[in-house]
């Protein structure tokens, strides 16, 4: 009798529990996965991390230094000025090629035919002939190392059907990246009315390419390499020479793309890595090749000397939290990401982390809900945070769940 009275009382309590409702839309609900749309930074309003801009002596008309990991602008000089950019244009061409590789639209070993239009391109080229075929990988090398216009057009026609259609994709991609002061008229960078960009926009597309497709560095690091022309007259060898002499002149250089025309002047979007820092430096309209390289080195050296990176891979275990009114009694947590902080004041100190969590949580909980955060300080100054997320979903307990738990408990418990 005592057993059945106890069971009846438990079922009554179970029912009263289920009528409790959770206000999931409460402003203070810690499970709300809220995001705010930050205003897009425009190239006409570029702000740098430094309160007082450093004084650097540069010969280029426009210049910019960016942290690749965060997109933070560390230095800029006329970076919003629209200018012709010559073969630096090819960074966008390469971005679309690597996107196609990632989407498996093309493969590195695919053979690409060369059209009469592609073979007729002037400027820097590798002298592809109409009817010749080359692999995607060989054409990438021709573009990256030798800045080949004919290889660019061959790839553009393969991916979009025509250079014109490919250029439309270039402009659409530029718009999606927030390159508000850029317009492409061809895929090579030949001087044409309506073909322009800015140092800031170039840094944006350089970051998109290098961060998402780091395999590009396998090609930008090539100094010299031979390719073979396969034509109706037979096979001939051609040597690719890297137009980016920074690869040999600066030990931390990793890429990226040079450009020159009489209208654009000497241009370069360069990448370099040192002490855990990855920087992108852009110069436009430098008076000469040597001056272009010197400006880039000045930007990199200033950045490496005045910045310091602090990171936490967040590999430590997080505590489990008690869960009320849930199907499970404990919630596992995970970090949303690793932590990265670039200190631009060259501050010496030790990074400290504080875990901020509630004592307990209430169901329902969705996987990925923000439960708390890890707050990072440097010399007692808060420098950032990383969200702590629910690593699993825990639904609200049901009447059936509660009854099953109670029955399981009663029948497995020892009698008095």
UniProtKB/TrEMBL annotation:
UniProt catalytic activity: Preferential cleavage: (Ac)2-L-Lys-D-Ala-|-D-Ala. Also transpeptidation of peptidyl-alanyl moieties that are N-acyl substituents of D-alanine
GO biological process: cell wall organization; peptidoglycan biosynthetic process; proteolysis; regulation of cell shape
Peptidase S11 D-Ala-D-Ala carboxypeptidase A C-terminal domain location: 310-396
One of the record's GO molecular function terms: serine-type D-Ala-D-Ala carboxypeptidase activity
Coiled coil: none
One Pfam assignment: Peptidase_S11
Documented EC number(s): 3.4.16.4
Protein name as annotated: serine-type D-Ala-D-Ala carboxypeptidase
UniProt entry keywords in alphabetical sequence: Carboxypeptidase, Cell shape, Cell wall biogenesis/degradation, Hydrolase, Peptidoglycan synthesis, Protease, Signal
InterPro entries with a match to the protein in the record: Beta-lactam/transpept-like (IPR012338), Peniciliin-bd_prot_C_sf (IPR015956), Peptidase_S11 (IPR018044), Peptidase_S11_C (IPR012907), Peptidase_S11_C_sf (IPR037167), Peptidase_S11_N (IPR001967)
């Amino acid at each position: 009798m005592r057993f059945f009275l106890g069971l009846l009382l438990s079922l009554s309590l179970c029912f009263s529990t289920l009528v409790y409702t959770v206000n999931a839309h409460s402003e203070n609900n810690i499970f709300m996965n809220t995001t705010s749309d930050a205003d897009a930074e425009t190239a006409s309003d570029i702000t740098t991390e430094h309160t007082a801009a450093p004084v650097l002596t540069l010969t280029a008309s426009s210049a910019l230094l960016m942290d690749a990991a965060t997109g933070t602008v560390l230095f800029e000089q006329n970076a919003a000025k629209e200018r012709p950019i010559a073969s630096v244009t090819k960074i966008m061409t390469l971005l679309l090629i690597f996107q196609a590789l990632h989407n498996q639209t093309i493969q590195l070993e695919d053979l690409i035919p060369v059209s009469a239009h592609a073979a007729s391109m002037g400027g820097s080229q590798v002298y592809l002939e109409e009817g010749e075929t080359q692999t995607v990988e060989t054409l990438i090398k021709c573009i990256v190392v030798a800045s080949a216009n004919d290889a660019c057009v061959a790839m553009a026609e393969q991916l979009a059907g025509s250079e014109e259609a490919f250029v439309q994709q270039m402009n659409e991609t530029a718009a999606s990246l927030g390159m508000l002061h850029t317009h492409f008229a061809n895929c090579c960078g030949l001087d044409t009315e309506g073909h322009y960009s800015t140092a800031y926009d170039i840094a944006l597309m350089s970051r998109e390419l290098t961060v998402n497709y780091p395999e590009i560095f396998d090609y930008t690091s090539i100094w010299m390499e031979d390719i073979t022309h396969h034509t109706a007259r037979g096979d001939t060898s051609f040597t690719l020479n890297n137009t980016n002499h920074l690869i040999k002149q600066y030990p931390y250089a990793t890429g990226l793309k040079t450009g020159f025309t009489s209208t654009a002047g000497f241009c370069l979007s360069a990448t370099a890595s040192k002490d855990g820092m990855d920087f992108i430096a852009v110069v436009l309209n430098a008076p000469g090749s040597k001056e272009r390289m010197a400006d880039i080195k000045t930007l990199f050296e200033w950045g490496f000397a005045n910045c310091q990176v602090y990171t936490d891979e967040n590999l430590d275990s997080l505590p489990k939290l008690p869960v009320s009114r849930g199907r499970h009694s404990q919630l596992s947590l995970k970090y949303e990401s690793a932590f990265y902080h670039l200190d631009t004041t060259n501050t010496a100190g030790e990074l400290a982390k504080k875990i901020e969590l509630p004592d307990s949580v209430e169901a329902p909980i969705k996987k990925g809900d923000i439960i708390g955060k890890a707050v990072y300080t440097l010399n007692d100054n808060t420098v950032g945070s990383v969200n702590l997320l629910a690593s699993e979903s825990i639904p609200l307990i049901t009447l059936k769940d509660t009854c099953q738990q109670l029955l399981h408990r009663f029948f497995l418990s020892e009698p008095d």
